[in-house]
Amino acid sequence: MSVGLLIDTTKCIACNACSEACKEQNKLPPTVEPQPTAYTWTVVQMVGDVPVRRMCLHCLEPTCASVCPVGAVHKTPLGPVVYDSDKCFGCRYCVQACPFGVPKYQWDRPLPLMGKCILCFDRVSKGEPTACASVCPTGATLFGERDLLIRDAKNRIATSPGDYVDHIYGLEEAGGTSVLFLSKVPFETIGLNTSIPRQPLPLLTWKVLSRVPDFVGIAGVFLFGIHWITERREFVSRLTSSPDDASHDTGDGDGRRQS
Hints:
This protein is an alpha+beta fold and 259 residues long. It has two domains: 3-200, Alpha-Beta Plaits (2-Layer Sandwich); 212-241. The chain contains eight helices and nine strands. It has a three-stranded mixed sheet with strand order 8-1-9. A two-stranded antiparallel sheet has the order 2-3. It is elongated.
């Protein structure tokens, strides 16, 4: 079972109760900033007259996890993409790799960490809904099994086609996400990236990494060749610079010493 969220922008009233609940749940500074940061993991932004949640989408195959060299970011079987700050050494590959620009860094701290929504992993692992879904007064944020959320979203589009774009954002984007969106207006107009490939982006990572062994092998042969040539030159140099034992003898040319 994989869980997630369905965010229906047509039902959101921009009350920001989700942001405040997230702050309390994760013990973050109480001030809700106007955009996601390392200290504000979700916020509602107004794009024209459309309120839009900004948060981690929890990709089914997250690129951030695929590039993390120490496993500090990883996808759980339940759905949330979580972060282990004890493993993190601050490479920030996750920040650069995310196609949605989600992970943020604590640039104001001497020992900074990455910050992003973890889909209330502690709560959902106990069968509880996320904090944001539990406080939403209009049902704009719905928590549940991803398959059931998809079914619900398709039903809303089918029964009220005039209220929604005929697409569920996150169904296929980047291989699919655990956070899904419905909207009445085109998703690109509310700031959601619609140019993201449908294939899981870690596949692109592995295509690059799969060439690493070949490169390492070729580089190894090349370096060994340089080492062999260098050693050979040094060996020849030692031979040519060492005294010839025969030069110390005075002979008649046939190897016999003169008396």
